[in-house]
Amino acid sequence: MTEPETPKGFAEEPQKPYSSRIRDELLRKPPKFERLHVGDGGRVVIPAAMREEMGIKPGDDLVAHVENGELRLISHRMALTRVQEEMAKYKKPGESVVDEFLAERRAMWGEE
């Protein structure tokens, strides 16, 4: 009698390497969910299509936080953009916060 076939898991069939010739295909339909492996030192590789969708490349900085048990990653650039958009509602039209700050400092230092 033959032994039943052992189901293949993530370790037996690792993620296929990224190929630049299938880049356009990957970008058309980036994965919503992808099973990732936590390696030595807690390292996780972000799949190429997800990196493309996030607009990140090797060497970029990410901001990470845990929310309700989920790890959330956002590019540093996108985090900065979100903060700027959120703070824009407090700025009056035509107001230059930088100019006001510099004027206050010059007055404090006696430079005006």
TrEMBL record:
Transferase is among the record's keywords: no
Keywords from the UniProt entry: DNA-binding
PROSITE patterns reported for this sequence: SPOVT_ABRB
Basic and acidic residues bias (residue ranges): 10-22
Disordered, as annotated region: 1-22
InterPro entries: SpoVT-AbrB_dom (IPR007159), SpoVT-AbrB_sf (IPR037914)
Origin: domain of life: Bacteria
GO MF term list: DNA binding
Pfam families xrefs: MazE_antitoxin (PF04014)
Domain spans labelled SpoVT-AbrB: 33-78
This protein's name: AbrB/MazE/SpoVT family DNA-binding domain-containing protein
Originating organism: Aminobacter anthyllidis
